[in-house]
Structures are given as structure tokens and as C-alpha cells.
What we know:
The structure is a single chain. The chain is α/β, with parallel strands linked by helices. Helices cover 52% and strands 13% of the residues. It has twelve helices and seven strands. The chain has helices spanning 38-42, 58-70, 81-89, 108-118, 134-142, 155-166, 178-181, 192-195, 200-226, 230-246, 250-265, 272-301; strands at 4-10, 14-20, 50-54, 74-78, 96-100, 125-129, 147-150. The strands form two sheets. Strands 4-3-5-6-7 form a five-stranded parallel beta sheet, with helices on both faces. Strands 1-2 form a two-stranded antiparallel ribbon. Helix 2 links the parallel strand 3 (50-54) and strand 4 (74-78).
Amino acid sequence: xxxxxxxxxxxxxxxxxxxxxxxxxxxxxxxxxxxxxxxxxxxxxxxxxxxxxxxxxxxxxxxxxxxxxxxxxxxxxxxxxxxxxxxxxxxxxxxxxxxxxxxxxxxxxxxxxxxxxxxxxxxxxxxxxxxxxxxxxxxxxxxxxxxxxxxxxxxxxxxxxxxxxxxxxxxxxxxxxxxxxxxxxxxxxxxxxxxxxxxxxxxxxxxxxxxxxxxxxxxxxxxxxxxxxxxxxxxxxxxxxxxxxxxxxxxxxxxxxxxxxxxxxxxxxxxxxxxxxxxxxxxxxxxxxxxxxxxxxxxxxx
Length: 302
């Protein structure tokens, strides 16, 4: 028929087939320009499940909410473990719970302990954190959590775990290695995680939120540094890491990760101001690029 067929495949994520045929469309016939079943139809068997998410980072909240709602999962998001526990004690029932480990008031470890020991609830719990420490992962399992994902996570990896627990399906062990293989090199940012969701409105919302909140968080870290409040520096840096990870800003992420570690261990704290200045300068370099990405995406939307 004079057409073409092509295939592209990525291990752990899926395969895309493209067929092009030079056909003449009959007058008055409906035109279908693209067939894209995407993530939703691949996971429609978990549609209708109910998930509770405890996460204090606003950008992460929007990312997780979008990912879960995209496959029809009813999602309730709270800002800390105390709010999650209050819902459970009030009788709310969920099919799965996602806990960020670093939250104010009541962190993920405390929340999981309360859920397992006090409330005696056995619903599956997935821990999420911007750290990747072996002892932290073991502690999660010791407290009764069922899985541990590092942020930024690839949506396909989260869908794998959702299906595993919501449908009681065993994991294949063939998760995408994107997180582990991220280059910590000279790339200023990479929006592939956002493009993967194939939603321009969501894409614009995340970029705008990043541009709005990042200067505020950098300023909060700066003020906490001036007052030598290292616990606050550690907390704010950890929170900022999640946002940087979503946009894969690896150079800036490395600087903020170092600040987080220095503040947590209270070692080499004299280097924090210099590291923070480098991170702030890097953000000012990246900011106009992200603004340009946002402007281009808004033009597409209109």
C-alpha cells in the first residue's frame, strides 16, 4: 500500500508501533490523526482503587496526584503523617498508602509505626524518599513497610508497584533503571519525566510551580544558614531535592544534596554558604531556560 511501519522499544517501559499509510480520506469521513492508548489503558485494571498519599512537597503532590488520577485511582493527599493517621482513625479505608519519609510533625517512619502497631492496619505501604541510603531502606522494611522507591521515580516504576500491591501481582524484577542510570554530569535539566506524562496542562503547571517555589525555598535555606539552624537547613534542602529531581537538574541537585548532608551531620558547615551561592547562581542560569520552556508549552496549549 506504499506505507511504512516502524517500532521502538524501551526495556521495562513498553513498545510503540507506528504505521503510516498514504490513503485518501473520503469526503465527510471522520479523521483520526493519532491512536494513543498510553498509560491509562495499560493500567485500567487498577482503576477505582483508593490510595492515601502523605507528602509535604507541593510539586511532588501534583506529580503523584496526576500519575494516580491518570489511571483512575481515587487519591487523597495530606501534608504530613499526622493528617494521614487522623484520616485512618476516623475510619477512612484505603487500598494502599504512600508515605514520604521526611515530613514535618510526623514523619514517614513514625507514621508507619503508628499504622502497624497502634492501628494494626495491614494495608500495603510504599515509602518514598529523595535519599537512597541502605540503612534507611532496611528500616522501612523493619517497620512494616512493603516497598521503597527513591524520588524522582519513573511513572512506569510506580505503576509496576501499584499493580503489584493493588492486584497482588508479583513484581517481574524488570523495573526501569532510569533512576539508577541518571547521569550526574553536565546536563542542566531534563524534562523527560514530564514529557512522559503526555499532558501539556500538567507540564505547564509543574514548571510554573517550580519557578514560583524554588526561589522561596532557596531563600529559606539562606535564612536558616544565617541563623545556623542546621536542622532547618537539612529539612529545607531535602524538600528542595525532590523538586530538582523531577526536572532532573543534576548539577543543582548535587549541590543541594551536599548541603543537606553537611547540615544533617553538622560537618563542614562552613562550606554551606558557598555551596548555596553556587546553587542559587545555577538556578538563575537555568531560570530563563525553564521560562522559555514554559512559554513555548503555553503557546502550544493556546
